[in-house]
Amino acid sequence: MENSPFTPRKVAELAPIARLIGLQPRSIELDRAVIELEAGSQHWNPLGTVHGGVYCDLADYAMGMSWLTGVPEDETFTTIEMKINFLRPFRTGKLIAQATVIRRGRSIGLVECEVRDEQGRLIAKASSTCMVLRGEQAAGR
């Protein structure tokens, strides 16, 4: 995290949604983030498995944090596209999202994320396109 003003503690403070859902930053370094979630019945859909939106929040948070590590303090960013594939159902236990910046361009970049269970099984795979905001676009964000 040497190129970023963000620490795992500050990251958690930046996102109230993380506290609401139960997302826990475990490792954040330049272009990489690992976020965990202890999934329980509060995360279930009506079928008794983790709701797809929860996977989206987990992956989006991990991808956003990995991207944020390379964003200067006077700039910010926004997600302009996100895609996720749900590969297997999950009920309770630890989910681990590992996000990596694949390409960091001047204005647009690509981030990927794998969500796995504690046994290493791939539960979901996501990708995100991020756009850097500078100057007036970054003001107040």
What does this structure look like?
The chain is of the alpha+beta class. It has one domain (8-137): Hotdog Thioesterase (Thiol Ester Dehydrase, Chain A). The protein is 21% helix and 43% strand. It has a 6-stranded antiparallel beta sheet. Strand 5 (108-117) and strand 6 form a beta hairpin. The model has no long low-confidence stretch (mean pLDDT 91).
- C-alpha Rg, in Å? 15 Å
Query: What's the average pLDDT?
Result: 91
Query: What level of helicity do the residues show?
Result: 10-25%
- Main sheet overview: 6 strands, antiparallel
In the residues, how many domains can be counted?
1
Provide the CATH architecture. Roll
What's the multimeric state? single chain
Number of helices: 3
| Secondary-structure class | alpha+beta
CATH class: Alpha Beta
User: Looking at the structure, what is the overall shape?
Assistant: elongated
Distance between the termini: 21 Å
Number of strands: 6
The CATH topology is Thiol Ester Dehydrase, Chain A
- Low-confidence spans: pLDDT under 50, at least 5 residues? none
In short:
The chain has 141 residues and is α+β, with helices and mostly antiparallel strands. It is 21% helix and 43% strand.
What distinguishing features does this structure have?
alpha+beta, Thiol Ester Dehydrase, Chain A, six-stranded antiparallel β-sheet, 6 strands, 43% strand
